[in-house]
Specification:
By secondary structure, the protein is mainly alpha-helical. Helix content is 68%, strand content 10%. The protein has two domains: 1-48; 53-142, Winged helix-like DNA-binding domain superfamily/Winged helix DNA-binding domain (Arc Repressor Mutant, subunit A), CATH 1.10.10.10. Strands 1-3-2 form a three-stranded antiparallel β-sheet. The longest helix has 23 residues, at 26-48. The two termini are 39 Å apart.
């Protein structure tokens, strides 16, 4: 069943079950929920080629985006990635085991540490990033550039609604 048929059936079922209510706002939310599931599956599919989970890759990408020397404290990482410190510890252990990151004492804070990309981690992150970029460009190729910008503006507004709700 196509996404259009799926949405048509869902909308029709809402109209039948609650005809007295305007459920128009639920339609884009249902589309977003479906996109969220498919986006997660897309990311996992692409990252599986590199035997890395999306959460673990997000650590490597955050370190790369931090710029040279590609290091952050664990607390900076979990603040940027909005994950728990326990979850961050597990991800860092997995990445350390693979030789992609290393932890060293923080020279400015004897109680803290710094996490940095190893040279292998920088090469690996770059290869994964290029593969993700290529796959994403291929996925979105049917959309003209102007349409992509229009969708991005609409998503920016929608994101603003969610952020206003959660971060007032």
């Amino acid at each position: 069943m196509s996404e259009v048929e799926w949405m048509d059936r869902l909308t029709a079922s809402w109209a039948r079950s609650v005809p007295e209510l305007d459920v128009a706002a639920l339609v884009p939310m249902a589309r977003l929920a479906r996109i969220s599931l498919l986006l997660g599956a897309f990311q996992e599919e692409q990252l599986a080629r590199f035997a890395i989970a999306p959460a673990d890759y997000s650590v490597l990408a955050a370190l790369r985006r931090s710029g040279s020397p590609y290091e952050l404290s664990p607390s900076e990482l979990y603040n940027v990635l909005e994950c728990s410190s326990g979850g961050m510890t597990k991800m860092l252990k997995r990445l350390e085991t693979r030789g992609l990151v290393e932890r060293a004492p923080d020279p400015a804070d004897g109680r803290g540490s710094r996490v940095s990309l190893t040279p292998e981690g920088r090469r690996f992150e770059r290869a994964v990033f290029e593969a993700l970029l290529e796959a994403t460009q291929s996925l979105l190729a049917p959309l003209p550039a102007a349409r992509l910008k229009e969708l991005d503006r609409a998503l920016e507004q929608l994101l603003g609604c969610f952020e206003q709700h959660f971060y007032r």
